[in-house]
Structures are given as structure tokens and as C-alpha cells.
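Lab meeting, action items carried over

1. Structure of the two-component assembly. Owner: GW. Status: complete.
Input record:
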Amino acid sequence: LAKTTQPISMDSYEGQEVNITCSHNNIATNDYITWYQQFPSQGPRFIIQGYKTKVTNEVASLFIPADRKSSTLSLPRVSLSDTAVYYCLVGDNYGQNFVFGPGTRLSVLP
Amino acid sequence: GAVVSQHPSWVICKSGTSVKIECRSLDFQATTMFWYRQFPKQSLMLMATSNEGSKATYEQGVEKDKFLINHASLTLSTLTVTSAHPEDSSFYICSARDRGDYGYTFGSGTRLTVV
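Predicted assembly:
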């Protein structure tokens, strides 16, 4: 299972763009990169998933360089409600469980 | 999208008693479900993989006789914490994946407090 490394915490202000980078040097060919958001006392919530290049949905963008050894989650114009822990996970989608790293605790300040 | 329902959302029990937590996939079938435990300010730790119709696979260090997992149908997995002790107090979360979805869907979690 590919191990991931993320910053432990980040601070931002409302309205700013936040970029959280995750390193996964030993990612396998079949692995996807998936990001989850977790609020206190709730289960993680799927944000976005990608394999290579760039993926965008209604809440975030995911940038993956050609070597796939890292990825960056981009949250545009964050609000106070985006304060949460963000987890980067690497694994395939065929029955393999995800191993959670410590995640990044994002604090959005007014 | 896929929905995973977990009940109860919180439970308080006395030391020595057993507690059952249910995890249901509401609109899809899940041959595999996963159970995690999360302590305050920490990440999720995988406890076991629940397989429909067969025995669960436990992670190293997780006592299979203490954390009983039953995956009797394609939509239901249960975790029973037997003879609970205060150190078992934690947040328990299950997850599953609908084949047509990206990533895994997680339940809302169960806060277990053993007094």
C-alpha cells in the first residue's frame, strides 16, 4: 500500500484558494488518488478522485503531475465551513482498503 | 450516490457489556465492507475487512474475539464489541464501495463510550 505524506496543518482565510499537497512516492500503476474531508464526529466524505493530469468537480480540483508521485488538492475560495481534516489516500478501486495517514487539519479563519 | 447507514450514532454502555453496531449499504450491494476506529485527534485506523459470507480479516493487533464482525448479507455488516472496557471507547466508522462509484462511502460513525 502506498504511503502518503501531507502537511499536518494549514491555516487560511475566507475567500482564499487553498492548495494541499500530498506526496506518494511509491504509488503503483493501478492506484488512484482520492481525497476525503472529515468533520468532527462524522465519517469521511469523498471529495475528488483522479489518476493523472487534472480533475475538477463542483467543489475542488486535483492536480497530478506526470510522474504521479504527488498530487495537489485545490479548494477555491474557502469558507469557514471548509474547516476540517483532509485526507489523501492512494489505492485501487477493486476491493483494496485505503490506509489513512494523519491528514491535514485545515483551519479557515474569518 | 451511494449511501452507507450506520447505527447507532452514539451509545453508552457499562463495562463488561456488549454493543452491536450496524452498517448498511442502502442502495447498493457491498460484498466487502471495512471497519475503522478513530481516537480523538487521530486518523482512522483500519480494524478489519468484512466479507459477505465468509470470515472477516482482521488487522494486526485487533482482537477478533473482542470485535466480532458478521457480514451475513450483501447490505449489512455488524461489529459487536464484546465485554467492552473504557479503553474501547472510540469512534467507529464503516465504509463500502458501490461498483459504479469513485472511492469509498463512509458511514456517519458511532461514538462508543464505555463507563
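2. GW to write a short summary for the group page. Key points so far: The CA atoms of residues 14 and 79 of chain A lie 5 Å apart. The mean pLDDT of chain A is 92.
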